[in-house]
Amino acid sequence: MKLRRFFSFITVIIFTFFGFKKVFASGEINLYLFWTEGCPHCKEEKEFLQKLLNSNDDLHLHSFEVSKSRENQEKLNKP
């Protein structure tokens, strides 16, 4: 269940990024990625986001590994 919530969160962030990019042509965009080590989906997502970062100076990635960090888990579960 947590994994499904995690991927839903990632999907929302990606769609939000593209939506904001169309609405706000300039300005910084903060993207928050919560990921776990060893997850092949997270690895693919990180590679995808790295390409976006390389092509967009306004995009700022905030990356949080959650499988080993209680603090990052709390950030993920924060309402």
Strand-helix topology:
Layout: H1 2-23, E1 29-35, H2 40-55, E2 59-65, H3 70-77
Sum up the structure in keywords.
alpha+beta; two-stranded parallel sheet; 3 helices; 79 residues; 58% helix; globular
How many strands appear in the DSSP assignment? Answer: 2
Sequence of secondary-structure elements:
HEHEH
Describe the oligomeric state of these chains in a short phrase.
Answer: single chain
* Helix fraction by DSSP (H/I, runs of at least 4): 55-70%
Helix/strand-derived category reads alpha+beta
Strand order across the largest sheet: 1-2
Q: Main β-sheet, in a few words?
A: 2 strands, parallel
Strand content: 15-25%
Low-confidence stretches: none
Radius of gyration (Å): 13 Å
Discrete helix count = 3
State the end-to-end CA separation: 17 Å
Q: What is the residue-averaged pLDDT? A: 80
The best one-word shape is: globular
Report on the structure:
- There is one protein chain.
- By secondary structure, the chain is α+β, with helices and mostly antiparallel strands.
- It has one domain.
- The chain has 3 helices and 2 strands; from the N terminus they run αβαβα.
- The radius of gyration is 13 Å and the shape is globular.
- The model has no long low-confidence stretch (mean pLDDT 80).
